[in-house]
Amino acid sequence: MSWGSELWDQFDNLEKHTQSGIEFVERYSKFVKERSDIEISYAKQIRNLSKKYQPKKNSREEEENKYTSCRAFLSTLNELNDYAGQHEVIAENLTSQIITELSRYLTELKAERKSHFHDGRKAQQQIESLWKQLESSKRRFERDCKEADRAQQYFERMDADINVTKADVEKARQQAQMRHQIAADSKTEYSNYLTKFNQEQNEHYYTLIPNIFQKLQEMEERRIERVGVSMKTYAEVDREVLPIVGKCLDGMTKAAESIEPKTDSKQVVESYKSGFEPPGDVEFEDYGPGQTMKRTVSETSLSNSRGEAKERPGGGKSKGKLWPFIKNKNKLSLKLGSGPEDFSHLPPEQRRKKLQAKIDDINKDIQKEMDQKDALTKMKGVYEKNPQMGDPASVDPRLVEMAMNIEKLQSEVQKFEGWLAEVEGRLPSRSDPPRRQSGLYESQNSNSTMVDNNCAQDRESPDGSYTEEQSSETQVKVAIANTPEFDDEFDDGDEETLPTIGTCKAVYSFEGHNEGTISVTEGELLFVIEQDKGDGWTRIRRNEEEEGYVPTSYVEVFLETNTKDS
Description:
Layout: H1 3-6, H2 11-52, H3 60-63, H4 68-160, H5 166-257, H6 261-272, H7 302-305, E1 309-311, E2 317-319, H8 327-335, H9 348-385, H10 396-426, E3 440-444, E4 447-451, E5 475-478, E6 502-506, E7 525-530, E8 537-541, E9 547-551, E10 555-559, H11 561-565
Antiparallel strand pairs: 1-2, 3-4, 3-5, 6-7, 6-10, 7-8, 8-9
Helix pairs in contact: 2-4, 2-5, 4-5, 9-10
């Protein structure tokens, strides 16, 4: 059905209807814009969530990534990050394919609508102007006819009156004839205006207005079609990312299926196995008059593992140590990862792994240097054959430097391989019968040796165990075999949380790359839990789970009053 023929008299309603259509497009565009904003906000929250649970550098979470369950969780976080990216794609496509296009189309639509209604109003004004002219000529014709009738009646009265002169009668007759002529002219003019108006009116209602309304109808149909296309695009934008979203979900499922409980259990053994043998039987010592029974330390005795306390000579109690690593003196070096170069402070099995990892790293460096050397050698050969490309002698200093680096690295490998051979020679075989280990762990010049515990004096060491008299050259520490109290930092498993003794403010930023340290940002406020003992390090705490050492010169310490007095 055509608007031009059916709605010829609904100009005002069509104007309202088309305006309502434009407002609908604007409302739909606003809806899509808000959906796009929601997708951007959602993607941002998902990315922040993924980032929040990513393992922090040099943290316990990063260390745990050797377990399949932790790696699966990390893969899930990475897939979740990609999943968030697809929501950003949805927002981007909604903006580019719908919002931007509709905004441009609305501008064109408003201009076209304005043009059509301008033409309609112009045609309406034209027909109204003709109507006014017709009405004016009609009233003039009516007035002139009445004037002619009055003039005729006046003439007839004058002609019938015998007292009126012939001159007056003639004058009245001429006046009547003039009025009749004016009326005839007005009639002709009225007839012409009527004919013209009927022609214009017919043109208006059967040609001009139908054409304008037909254009408005076509414009409205295009608007409706455009809205339909936008709604279809709205669905397609979501559909396009479904395959990638599905791959993200498949990745999460695959990560979950990759979890292997047995492998993780085996990894626990690999991580914490010390390499020490279980203790053998304790020898019987008879008591004799005047003799003092010698004190020996069972590094894995049940009494020590139960945490029995011994009285110190100066009073007070000390917990039994289960490992040959004295925390008070060695704790800082172990935490900071700055122990002996040969890792002699570690149990045999852990030491072997560290040495093997170090050898592998150095071999990678050697291979890298050799590859670079080969490339430079080939470049030198090219220069020798084509001197215009470069001076062969310019490469020689770099080749010499690389050769020295390779020689140095190879020397390092030999050194670490020697230590590795030493450790592998000491590791017990599973088929060997249990034997009693020495109760003393001697450390000198980064090389560990075992000494006879039967010569120990009846004296307790600061860590709660009995040791022999120490010379000025040899520091003797108690060696204890494999127990559940051994952790990554070789601290007591039942160590209590240290109390806060003050606060500090970071004067400089410090990146704690080594184990046991903690990163701080300039201006950050933290809690002090252990003062500098003269080694240049202060122990601080950020929260219940984050604590570590920072250089004392990097922080400004504010100790509590009672701490300063003590």
